[in-house]
Amino acid sequence: MWDWIGTQAPALNAVLNALMLVIWLAYLQLFFTSFRRANRTVVHIGMASENGEDARCLVTNMGSDVAYILAVLIELDFGDERRSATVTDRVEDDDPVGGDFRDKTNQGPLRGGEAIDIGSLRRIVKRAAHQMDEDMSLDRCEAVDITVVVAAQQAHKLSGGRKRYEISREAGRMRFRPSSVLTAQVGSRRQQRELLQRVNG
Questions:
Q1: Beta bridge partners of residue 47, listed in sequence order
Q2: How far apart are CA 116 and CA 61, in angstroms?
Q3: Nearest by Cα to 85 from 70, 75, 98
Q4: pLDDT of 6-65, one tens digit each?
Q5: Nearest Cα to 90, choosing from 109, 118, 116?
Q6: What's the rounded Cα separation, in Å, for the pair 90 and 172?
Q7: Cα(56)–Cα(120) distance, rounded to whole angstroms?
Q8: How far apart are CA 92 and CA 78, in angstroms?
Q9: Could you please report the per-residue DSSP string of 43-93?
Q10: How far apart are alpha carbons 114 and 126 in whole angstroms?
Q11: pTM for this entry
């Protein structure tokens, strides 16, 4: 047996080296996958307090890295037409920002695990109406799409999240129900290009 092992030593060494290489590649792949998952930017959009037009809209950075909010986009579905606007700023007048900028805009850094209140749905629609200089109301609206665009990975990548809220009316009150509990993430390059065009106007 030892004689056979001695004669087959080069072949056995080659096999063992190949197995070690496979094991190390598997460990490297596992490490790389874990690293990407830990550093991936995930934006969650949710509602708090209630489910009516006065519900607060919360944006949370579910990733571990800092994400910079570039823009908040809204799209109103009126059935026969759709209207969209950028509603990043919190104020509807021309006052200078001044003071704490976060009091007047949703733009800015959001640490991992941190959430920001971007306003009530009613206030967000008023911002859209002011921005487009139109008299817009939720009365005829059938659904609202909210998209949050962020710069992630040290501002080297455009990312974000999108959520759709269907509007129902019960006893004269509007109810906003998300089409999904989870927030759809902006991941493909096509989606990123579309968002970049919308942000750039």
A1: 57
A2: 9
A3: 75
A4: 676 677 677 777 888 888 888 777 766 665 655 678 899 998 877 777 888 999 998 888
A5: 118
A6: 28
A7: 4
A8: 23
A9: EEEEEES-SSTTPEEEEEE-SSS-EEEEEEEEEEE-SS-EEEEE--BS-SS
A10: 26
A11: 0.74
Q: Which residues of 133-152 are buried (b: 16+ CB within 10 A; e: fewer)?
A: eeebebeebebbbbbbbbbb
Is the separation of the CB atoms in 118 and 124 below 8 Å? yes
User: Cβ distance 184 to 162 under 8 Å?
Assistant: yes
Identity at 111, one-letter amino acid code: R
Q: Is the pLDDT of residue 166 over 60?
A: yes
Strands, E assignment, the chain:
43-48, 56-61, 67-77, 82-86, 108-110, 115-120, 143-152, 157-170, 173-178, 184-185
Element at 17 (helix H, strand E): helix 9-39
Phi-psi region at 12: left, alpha or beta (left = phi > 0; alpha = psi -120 to 50):
alpha
Contact 165, 149 (CB under 8 A): no
CA distance 71 to 188: 18
- Beta bridge partner(s), residue 132: none
| Rounded Cα distance, 199 and 86, in Å | 8
Query: What is the amino acid identity at position 80?
Result: D
